[in-house]
Amino acid sequence: MRVMERIERAARRSGRDPKEIRLVAVSKTVGVDQIKEAIEAGVSILGENYVQEAQKKIDAIGRKVDWHFIGHLQSNKAKYAVRLFDMIHSLDSFPLAEELNRRAEKEGRPIKVMIEVKLSEEATKFGTEEEKALDLAKRILGLEHLSFEGLMTMPPYFDLPEMSRPYYIRLRELREKMERESIPVKELSMGMSNDFEIAIEEGATYVRVGTAIFGPRSK
Predict the structure, then answer these.
(1) pLDDT at residue 180, rounded to an integer
(2) The whole model's pTM is what?
């Protein structure tokens, strides 16, 4: 898979072990047959944006891969998200964290979460504000059934990948700030098809790649 080769080259360029970086194949709007082909080619994590769409795919494909939720999650979908997904990248508020914690307790399984941090001014982007992320992380650490894994962000789309770099630097610096406050931040989820190599250079441990694997979106 060419994407895996690009990940490995980007890691080695920046003095990192390629094994530190995991590929999340973004399968939003992608059909089951195409997803199965990707799994056969080596994909082991699938990223979905919508709970109902993911439910149908998980029913068809099963648990042979990990399923990550990467879209905007509403509280009324929390119970389904806890059942379906191995990790949620897009936790953006403490009320949502509390609801996920409550649902995870009922399901009898802890859920891994990352805080989505909004670093752009775009109205279409979700996430907690940068200055509130530290406090949110501290509060999540007090919830027994959530495992705080790290931080996620989504910059604006740029034709020039290099223009994404300042956003990824800011997320890395936020991780460093949290670690100085004794908050462990294992993961950085950042980088998509157009700029994931830049994200890897700045410390990404998960890259979320759809178009470069599956081709342009059908809708």
Answers:
(1) 97
(2) 0.96
Tell me which long-range contacts 35-40 makes (C-beta under 8 A, separation of at least 24). Answer: 35/61, 36/61, 38/213, 38/214, 39/64, 39/65
Q: Which two tokens stand for residue 67?
A: 């399923």
Average pLDDT over residues 86-113: 97
SS (H, E, C) the chain: CHHHHHHHHHHHHCCCCHHHCEEEEECCCCCHHHHHHHHHCCCCEEEECCHHHHHHHHHHHCCCCEEEECCCCCHHHHHHHHHHCCEEEEECCHHHHHHHHHHHHHHCCCEEEEEEEECCCCCCCCCEEHHHHHHHHHHHCCCCCEEEEEEECCCCCCCCHHHHHHHHHHHHHHHHHHHHCCCCCCEEECCCCCCHHHHHHCCCCEEEECHHHHCCCCC
pLDDT of residue 217 exceeding 80, the answer is: no
Enumerate domains of the chain plus CATH numbers.
2-214 (3.20.20.10)
pLDDT of 51 above 80: yes
User: What is the per-residue pLDDT across 117-153, written as a single tens digit (0 to 9) for each?
Assistant: 999 988 788 999 999 999 999 999 999 999 999 999 9
- Least Cα distance to 104 among 128, 127, 80, 137 occurs for 80
